[in-house]
């Protein structure tokens, strides 16, 4: 993960919220957002669900909306630090 310093000297971690949210909405059935966040097992499961029955796309849309409506800090703590794999 990339660390950057703000003008006040506070270290900011790279936040993947917007990219993950867009990937989830546009490519959710392929699980791209899961792979981007480092969730390989969940990405494979979502890819299989998307290819077999199409529900992976619906899950992706729901997750994308959840990702984009969270605050930056909530998203970072939940999905990047806490590694919450689903919803």
Question: Would you give an account of this structure?
Answer:
- The protein has 87 residues and is mostly helical.
- It has one domain.
- It is built from 5 helices and 2 strands, in the order ββααααα.
- The chain has helices at residues 17-27, 32-37, 40-52, 55-69, 72-81, and strands spanning 3-5, 11-13.
- A two-stranded antiparallel ribbon has the order 1-2.
- It is globular, with a radius of gyration of 14 Å.
- It starts with a strand and ends in a 6-residue tail after the last helix.
- The model is unreliable at 4-11 (pLDDT under 50).
Task: Give a brief description.
With 87 residues, the protein is mainly alpha-helical. It has one domain. 63% of the residues lie in helices and 7% in strands.
Integer-rounded radius of gyration: 14 Å
Biggest pleated-sheet summary? 2 strands, antiparallel
Q: Which strand order do you get reading across the main beta sheet?
A: 1-2
Number of domains: 1
Give the SSE order as H and E letters: EEHHHHH
Work out the helicity level: 55-70%
The fraction of residues in strands falls at 5-15%
The overall average pLDDT, rounded, is 86
Q: What structural class do the secondary elements suggest? A: mainly alpha
Query: What is the molecular shape?
Result: globular
The number of helical segments is 5
Low-confidence stretches: 4-11
Q: Cα distance, first to last residue? A: 22 Å
């Amino acid at each position: 993960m990339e660390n950057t310093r703000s003008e006040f000297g506070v270290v900011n971690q790279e936040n993947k919220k917007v990219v993950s949210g867009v990937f989830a909405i546009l490519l959710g059935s392929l699980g791209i957002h899961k792979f981007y966040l480092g969730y390989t097992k969940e990405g494979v499961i979502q890819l299989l669900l998307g290819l077999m029955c199409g529900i992976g796309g619906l899950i992706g849309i729901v997750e994308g909306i959840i990702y984009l409506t969270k605050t930056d800090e909530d998203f970072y703590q939940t999905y990047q630090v806490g590694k919450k794999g689903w919803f």
